[in-house]
Amino acid sequence: RRKWNRMVGVLKELEEGCSTSITRLRQVVDAMAVEMHAGLASEGGSKLKMLLTFIDNLPHGNEKGTYYALHLGGTNFRVLRVQLGGKGSGILGHEVERQPIPPYLMTSTSEDLFDFIAEALNQFIEREGSGNDLPPKERRQLGFTFSFPVRQTSANSGCLVKWTKGFSIKDLVGKDVTTCLEESMAKIGLDMRVATLVNDTVGTLALGHFHDEDTVAAVIIGTGTNACYVERTDAIIKSQGLLTNSGGVVVNMEWGNFWSSHLPKTSYDNDLDAESPNPFDQGFEKMISGMYLGDIVRRVLLRMAQESDIFGDLPSSLSVPFILRTPLMAAMHEDDSPDLREVARILNDTLQISDVPLKVRRVVVRVCDVVTRRAARLAAAGIVGILKKIGRDGSGGISSGRMKSGIESSSTKMRRTVVAIEGGLYLSYTMFREHLSEAMTEILGEEVAQNVILRVSEDGSGLGAALLAASHSSTV
Ligand code: ADP
């Protein structure tokens, strides 16, 4: 009984530590908007890098022809071919091939990595036969999605700032990513032009905008998390004099590194951070994204097991980092069987904890909910932070974010605003999505929330890059 109470104590403390009251969320919204300002004001002015992408026109739906895309970023590597029909006909068809990145390549040399990618691309093209409608001899145009922080030097070149998500190839940091890819392609005689180098969020934004021109921002919540949006060039103090035809430019926020003292951080977060390969880095990402949620839950369960006897003798599995992957955590959270059969199965199969009583299984579900709810609500606050920065949160002020028309005057009527969203966590974890959407309405209020649409932009990171390759090829 006393031990059970201790476990309850741990749960209570977790719930309090993860509290995301509306007041707290509003503080996070404001902090996000403030940090965005700071990151745009000067280089290194904020933990938000606010990287300029040089993308100033997004696809509108008139693009035509066959284009290619490569996506390197998370656990998988993708090659795509997209057929665009021109005005009104949209995407006629697309093929995608995915393959896992062999883990040794994630920490090898940049030459090894890019040779592997170029070869995969080459094989994809060899297999296409007459599968494209390119005129003979026409050079293939490639959109390259590289989902790591890059300091762009143009729309199709840029240097890697740092690795994230478990990659660590030291010799690539500071180097031009496009040059590396082109060198590897040249070695095997693959004739392709890298038309655009983009972050995955920018690809997602491009696909979103292709389908719906009210799309002003994009968010990805998968293994990691990041966001980008359209900013007015005159609001970017750190690169004064930047001129674009549209008056706007896409900014890659690298929001995974956002930090604010208002974020509800617990001892579990501190421990996870301290034991990670990148302490004090990617703080927001570590509270939100798929790479980490399961491990936060594991840490809570470990503490409960240490403080009480809910799992019998201390199960050694609970000390193994990342043993509980987020998809399994989600499966436990979403177990709707009355006796929580799935929870029992996962505890048994993955953590080798058997015969867990129903009331303890309920506690496990509760822990999953607390951790996911916090993540989803913080992500929602981040999104509203972006909307606030561009005057689309319904609070009045100058609105912006639309490329075609550039600067707009303030208006009291809230404009329809679309945020493109993708990533495995968001797409596959229903409870996460529900908590996020509920928090959006809570922060914005019903009326404003009706004008803010989160639109899934599936495969956007790859497809969008091909679309950008299209819109950036017609102008050269
Ligand atoms: P990546 O971010 O690696 O490029 P994805 O956007 O597909 O790829 O996201 C994959 C991540 O999404 C996984 O690492 C996992 O954390 C999360 N995820 C995938 N499926 C689920 C699921 N069913 N429930 C919860 N999280 C999931």
From TrEMBL:
Pfam families reported in the protein's UniProt record: Hexokinase_1, Hexokinase_2
Every Hexokinase C-terminal domain range: 217-470
InterPro entries: ATPase_NBD, Hexokinase, Hexokinase_C, Hexokinase_N
Keyword Signal: no
Enzyme Commission identifier(s): 2.7.1.-
Assigned protein family: Belongs to the hexokinase family.
Name used for this protein in its record: Phosphotransferase
Species for this entry: Papaver nudicaule (Iceland poppy)
Phylogenetic classification of the source organism: Eukaryota, Viridiplantae, Streptophyta, Embryophyta, Tracheophyta
